[in-house]
Amino acid sequence: MNRTYVIQTLGCQMNVHDSERIAGSLDAAGYTPALEGQDPDLIVFNTCAVRENADNKLYGHLSFLAPTKKANPDLQIAIGGCLAQKDKGSIIKRAPYVDVVFGTHNVGSLPALLERARIEQRSQVEIKEALEHFPSTLPARRHSAFSAWVSISVGCNNTCTFCIVPQLRGREKDRPSDEILGEIRALVDEGVTEVTLLGQNVNAYGVDFGDREAFAKLLRECGKVDGLERVRFMSPHPRDFTDDVIEAMAQTHNVMPHLHMPLQSGSDRILQSMRRSYRVDRYRAIIEKVRAAMPHSTITTDLIVGFPGESESDFQASLDVCSELRFLAAYSFKYSKRPGTPAAQMPDQIDEDVVAERYDRLHKKLNEVSLSVNEDVIGSELEVLITDIEAGRAQGKSRDFRLVHFEVSGEEGARPGDVAKVKITSAKPHFIFGEKIEIRKSRGGDAFELRKMEAEKNGVFLGVPQLKSSLVK
Ligand code: SF4
């Protein structure tokens, strides 16, 4: 077959990982990743539906691709992910030159649908309302040789009023923990040294098989995997965040001292309207317990600005909680009205200009706070997993999730995947600089080097090939 492909991934880490599974399924069906500058035979969009601009982005890309498809009818276009799960066949109505639309519950059926579209010379739409197989049973082409996403559950049982995810990803389904640990051990055998456990609501893990302590137990089991140096997870939900998880984090050597836990708003009135089932006091209490158990831990979060009914004092409460809880970083979003969500029907939708002005103020506040949190570590030595090296400048993540930049000389032969000890010299809101003290060669670095050599020898792309911007605007 030897048809080449690229994948454009929009949205969250779950989608980034699903794209690895989509790429793995295409490889298994005989496709190959397109090389830099090569026009692909297949373009896959793995879409997001959380925010309105996600829709606009996809349909913008598609309209730009129409003349390319007209000029090359052999080019295939496939749409997957949450927007496909939401819009189904209406995508074909808006863009009849799309060949395949597949959903979040049947990621693995893409190769067969592409074949059927070619044989029958007509578009194929296949959306399942419930999960058939865990995507984790599919082969994966991973972005990194040493850092891997491992999904532990899909779907969500919560009903946040702004969120469309439960409608598109379904109710929570948990993977058996021995299957998760089996995947992690196999990854470590391949050279992976860091895993990130993924789920819409990781600390509800176990609800599916009735074990409320399953997530803490899973973290502790990760601590027994030889060669696994770093364990991270996202995203937990404050309502289900229990003390056993904090203890497991603090007492398991390879669980990193960083917690990404969405708060969404600093106002109890807005949290109630969001149906987030916790209030700021509970969130604060969890953070205090985490910091008591792991004094050097860092916290990152998600915040929404401009939720319906948000008053100036509600917004001020969000600003105040950022200063008080000193987030290392926060992913902040302008509220986006999603048809089909309760919040979309709510009165008091906030004027866009007001939302934009508050968004800028929040950003300013977050930058001030992040800078001061990063200044705390000037003078200290941090362990950094190198993720990238370019022109003698290395970057990577510290154990507590800070982005660290430092110089390396060519002779040392440092590689992505290796681990550096770095003395921090200065700070910016979103990263810190340091001087390299030493480089520890790691199995992750070996895995990176091996994969790079194989890719060069076989002339194949390293990782999941992205869509080049010249093809879409
Ligand atoms: S916890 Fe809330 S915001 Fe997160 S996926 Fe579930 S419903 Fe959506």
Identify the CATH homologous superfamily of the largest domain: tm_1862 like domain
CATH class of the largest domain: Alpha Beta
Output the strand order for the largest sheet. Answer: 2-1-3-4-5-6
The backbone outline, from C-alpha atoms, is: globular
Summarize this entry quickly.
By secondary structure, this protein is of the alpha/beta class. Helices cover 36% and strands 21% of the residues.
What's the helix and strand layout?
Blueprint: E1 4-9, H1 13-28, E2 32-33, E3 42-47, H2 52-71, E4 76-81, H3 82-87, H4 90-94, E5 100-102, H5 110-120, E6 124-126, E7 147-151, E8 153-154, H6 165-169, E9 173-174, H7 177-189, E10 194-198, H8 214-222, E11 230-234, H9 243-251, E12 258-260, H10 268-273, H11 280-293, E13 298-305, H12 312-325, E14 329-334, H13 352-375, E15 381-390, E16 393-398, E17 403-407, E18 419-427, E19 432-440, H14 443-458
Parallel strand pairs: 1-2, 1-3, 3-4, 4-5, 5-6, 7-10, 10-11, 12-13, 13-14, 17-19
Antiparallel strand pairs: 8-9, 15-16, 15-18, 16-17, 18-19
